[in-house]
Amino acid sequence: MSATAPVRPVLPPDIKARKGAAPLVVLTAYTTPVARLVDPHCDIALVGDSLGMVLHGMSSTVGVTMEMMILHGRSVVRGLTKAMPVIDMPFGSYEESPQQAYRNAARLMAETGAPAVKLEGGQTMAETIAFLTSRGVPVMAHVGLTPQSVNTLGGYKVVGREGEADKVMADAKACEAAGAFSIVLEKVPMGLAGRITKALTIPTIGIGAGVDCDGQVLVVDDMLGLFTEFRPKFVKRYAELGKSADEAIAAYAAEVRGRVFPAAEHSFPDALPAKAKS
Ligand code: KIV
């Protein structure tokens, strides 16, 4: 392959340049068919480690592995022609040292074809973000509620009220100074998210962080009504696909039991009518 081979149409510097422009539209995707649906409408398709809970029935994202992220990352990249893929670094793949983070980030990029990774953490991850970004790994940061730390945070609570606001602001600034090209603000009070968005020169992408962020992200199964185990306050359901699927499966079961399905048009005759094709 030559160094002039076509690269993806949208790369991290293009996303960074969107600061203050039209809001960035981001959804998660974990499979090729969903990536194809997301692609025409979104700027970024995030292969979030939420896939552990949404697709694999895990109780948190802590058990998600590099192999899971690579498998789903490849599947998503295959389905995208326009939107930029970003792959989450799973818990345990980057916290130990910048070198460990580099090894795993490089593997995620090389084995999936995604041009960027996302990792959770603010000031404590700044050294790692600087190490990665100075070595060719574009990083989307993630502060506020960081679900991989659910066991130390003690639940999925709002982060940044009262005494915590200064720390969240300092976390966001540290990620920007370290070279992150954008930053997710999760479950951060809307006023604080607005102040962070004003203070930073990189785009903020909110999830439960109010309307003043530079972009918004949702878990696609949440907004489509496919993931119904629980529903955070910040989720708006744009469809009820879970309900539609339940109705469709119930109708199929009733038709099979009633010998209504398969009908003649879904079956193959023993002999073909003259000139007809199978
Ligand atoms: O894992 C994920 O899907 C995420 C988004 C919710 C931001 O990190």
Describe the structure.
- This protein is 37% helix and 13% strand.
- The protein contains eleven helices and eight strands.
- An eight-stranded parallel β-barrel has the order 1-2-3-4-5-6-7-8, surrounded by five helices.
- Strand 6 (182-186), helix 9 and strand 7 (204-207) form a beta-alpha-beta unit.
- The radius of gyration is 22 Å and the shape is globular.
- It binds 3-methyl-2-oxobutanoic acid.
Quick overview of this protein structure:
The chain is an alpha/beta fold. Helices cover 37% and strands 13% of the residues.
Keywords summarizing the entry:
278 residues, 11 helices, 37% helix, binds 3-methyl-2-oxobutanoic acid
Radius of gyration: 22 Å
Strand content: 5-15%
Order of helices and strands: HEHEHHEHEHEHHEHEEHH
Main sheet?
A: 8 strands, parallel, barrel
Attached small molecules: 3-methyl-2-oxobutanoic acid
Average pLDDT rating: 95
Total number of helical segments?
Answer: 11
State the share of residues found in helices, binned by percent: 25-40%
Distance between the termini: 44 Å
Shape: globular
- Poorly predicted parts: none
Structural class: alpha/beta
Strand order of the largest sheet: 1-2-3-4-5-6-7-8
Q: Care to count the β-strands?
A: 8
